[in-house]
Specification:
13% strand; Rossmann fold; 2 domains; Arc Repressor Mutant, subunit A
Length: 406
């Protein structure tokens, strides 16, 4: 199992004159990229004389010419070319570090947690009024995510299951089946339009989001049956080795249940699966022995799981994949947030899968919120995670191979 932590490389510049400032380097990169002082000055919101002074100051501090100037053109010297490559890297790393520091400092993660708050503080009684409130709060949180402007959202019926296809090119069949989160009792394809659009953009393929049936009106195995039906419909359009299954939170557990059902029923399994902050320790939640039992919102989580399980024995591997034989599953990408309470169970899942011969990549992100990927529009770690999903998919499907029809 490969495990990665998102971090920035540290670039050491030895013997650098102390008087060189970031404004000098940013001015130089702008001129070097534009090769025009006027355009570079506009880009930096400076006057041309001020920009020229900064470039001359940098050259004096370094003791060499970086640019050759004439009446009609600006060119880089050899020294300028050498400095440009390294300075671009330095500034990019610095900007990334500053954004990450701001995020870790709490501002952006705090924004995500404030969006979660109406859901996380929902009522914990078992009444229909509580469930209606939870569902409304979850949809309101999801509605705050923008839908990327270059994607099209189309309603479909897939094997009898209502769904939405989110894609930049609606004429091509989707390669990704995404099972939305919501603890098996909340969430919808409509609410996940924004996230699915971001997922489609990162992968370069359409995403199908089934509106699988929710508990308690439709307890297990209704959601698994709907996921299987939607997948088999996709299989009529696209070969299995060109399909990816993904899911977040409870949808991650449902994605695992789908993989196991396909394997056990003799259906072709997809090329791989992406599990985003999956919640998988349902047996321990029912028994009250889960590490999540210490969490302040455990009562609400346990209620959702009880609604889904509806008295069924949790040793059923399709109900709780932690009780399953995982042999033969396709490659898995599991993304976790270090501050997410479900990370403990997901780590155990990754370890069990690897022990049983599954190709597992586990990625850890320094975030203090559940399903942080939902906040891709403003959270740097979420943007990094979505890019990694795209890389994982490209590794399995190959560049330019998506939407290859049967």
């Amino acid at each position: 199992m490969s495990e990665s932590n998102e971090s920035a490389d540290v670039l050491a510049l030895s013997n650098t004159p102390d008087a060189i400032e970031l404004r000098h380097l940013r001015a130089f990169v702008a001129v070097a990229e534009e090769l025009n002082f006027g355009r570079a000055a506009s880009r930096l919101y400076l006057s041309q004389p001020a920009l020229s002074r900064q470039i001359r100051a940098l050259e004096r501090l370094l003791g060499c010419d970086l640019l050759r100037r004439s009446t009609h053109r600006v060119e880089l010297t050899l020294a300028g070319e050498a400095l440009l490559d390294r300075t671009r890297t330095l500034l990019a790393d610095l900007d990334s570090a500053l954004v990450t520091a701001r995020s870790v400092g709490g501002e952006l993660v705090g924004r995500a947690n404030r969006m979660w708050a109406p859901v996380a503080t929902g009522r914990s009684d078992r009444g229909q009024e509580s469930l209606t409130s939870l569902r409304a709060a979850y949809e309101q949180m999801l509605a705050q995510a923008p839908v990327p402007p270059d994607v099209v959202v189309l309603p479909l019926t897939c094997g009898g299951v209502p769904a939405l296809q989110v894609a930049a090119d609606a004429s091509r069949p989707p390669n990704v089946l995404h099972l939305h989160g919501g603890g098996f009792v909340m969430g919808s394809a409509y609410g996940y339009r924004g996230f699915s659009g971001a997922l489609a953009t990162s992968i370069g393929s359409g995403v199908l989001v089934p509106d699988y049936r929710l508990a308690p009106e439709h307890p297990y195995p209704a959601a698994v049956d709907d996921a299987v039906s939607a997948y088999l419909w996709m299989l009529e359009q696209v070969p299995a080795d060109q399909l990816i299954v993904s899911g977040d939170s409870g949808g991650g557990a449902l994605a695992l249940s789908l993989l196991l059902a396909l394997r056990d029923r003799g259906h072709p399994t997809p090329a791989g699966a992406v599990l985003l902050c999956p919640g998988v320790d349902m047996t321990e939640i029912i028994e009250g022995t889960s590490p999540l039992a210490e969490h302040e919102n455990f009562g609400m989580l346990a209620q959702c799981v009880e609604w889904y399980v509806a008295g069924q024995p949790t040793d059923d591997p399709l109900l709780d994949p932690m009780n399953a034989d995982l042999t033969g599953l396709p490659p898995l990408l599991i993304q976790l947030a270090t501050g997410d309470p479900v990370a403990v169970g997901a780590r155990q899942l990754a370890e069990r899968a690897e022990q049983q011969g599954v190709d597992v990549t586990m990625e850890l992100y320094a975030v203090e919120t559940h399903i942080f990927q939902l906040f891709w529009s403003f959270l740097p770690e979420a943007q990094q995670a979505m890019a990694k999903v795209g890389e994982f998919t490209e590794r399995l499907l190959g560049p330019g191979q998506v939407s290859k029809t049967v």
